[in-house]
Amino acid sequence: MTVGIAASVANGWVNGLGTLYAKLHTGDPGAAGATAASAETTRKAMTFGSASAGVATQTGTVSWTAWTAGSETISHVSYWTASTGGTFQGSFALSVSKSVANTDTLNLASCTISATPVAA
What we know:
The chain is built from one helix and eight strands. By secondary structure, it is mainly beta. The strands form two sheets. It has a six-stranded antiparallel β-sheet. The protein has a two-stranded antiparallel ribbon with strand order 4-7. A hairpin with a 7-residue loop joins strand 5 and strand 6.
């Protein structure tokens, strides 16, 4: 592809996001990130490596444990600028929904953030 965002601009946008805080959802979070929130309300910090070609990959694993609200199926994640409050930055659907119940652990291990297409 020869059209798109300059790689330096795309990398700057993605790197400028800094630490993001992941929130779990049982359905599409909607345009404001507030719909279908999981009973597990703790937002977890996600960190990303430096962007290349407008894409940054999560470093480390983010885990939620000890579900206390019975069981539910997690299908989406929203990401925010703070652990509480903050600004909604976006959302994504999990590649596979995950059913969780008391004492289960849910791990989020391989997310990417991108600003594409990048001119090549």
